[in-house]
Amino acid sequence: MRRHTNTITKATGSAPVGFLPLGGGCVSDVRKVTLADGRVIVAKSGDAGSSLDLEGFMLRYLSETGGLPVPEVLYADDELLLMNWIESAGGLSDGAQIQAADLLAALHDVSADSFGFDRATVIGGLHQP
């Protein structure tokens, strides 16, 4: 992750001063990054061909089209994805579970004029042409 220090600094305007490993990155290294100005972000790092730029595109698309509360994408290229940090107390309350179900149902209501998507995407490490 430290190999991306310059890119993180350029993308956020502040140098990273701390990296804390996070779980859940099935195809990439995920870290909570503290910046010199006090902001906290999430950085997901992978090898060449990781398609993290596609993940960034998909998060933006879900936010704009599906209305889902997803992290704001601060930067995305093939090997690095930077997102805002979303604070959480951990676990899901009954209300949070109901909200998640409502959001998923709304996402399934999104329609298009034709089958498929206008560009390739990914699910984990699996490319979806």
Give the structural class. alpha+beta
Question: Could you tell me the number of beta strands?
Answer: 7
Which strand order spans the largest sheet, edge to edge or round the barrel? 1-2-3-5-4
| Annotation field: number of helices | 3
* CATH hierarchy, class: Alpha Beta
Radius of gyration (Å): 16 Å
Query: What is the straight-line distance between the termini?
Result: 29 Å
Q: Per CATH, which architecture?
A: 2-Layer Sandwich
Q: Domain count, please report it.
A: 1
Strand content: 25-35%
Helix and strand succession?
HEEEHEEHEE
**CATH third-level topology:** Phosphorylase Kinase, domain 1
Report the principal-axis shape: globular
Q: How is the main sheet built?
A: 5 strands, antiparallel
Q: Level of helix content?
A: 25-40%
CATH superfamily, by name, is Phosphorylase Kinase, domain 1
The residue ranges in which pLDDT falls below 50 over 5 or more consecutive positions are none
Mean pLDDT: 89
Explain the overall architecture.
- By secondary structure, the chain is of the alpha+beta class.
- It has a single domain (2-86, 93-128), classed as Phosphorylase Kinase, domain 1 (2-Layer Sandwich).
- Helices cover 29% and strands 26% of the residues.
- It has 3 helices and 7 strands, in the order αβββαββαββ.
- The protein has helices at residues 5-12, 52-66, 94-108; strands at 16-21, 29-35, 40-45, 73-76, 80-84, 121-123, 126-128.
- The chain has a 5-stranded antiparallel β-sheet with strand order 1-2-3-5-4. Strands 6-7 form a two-stranded antiparallel sheet.
- Strand 4 and strand 5 (80-84) form a beta hairpin.
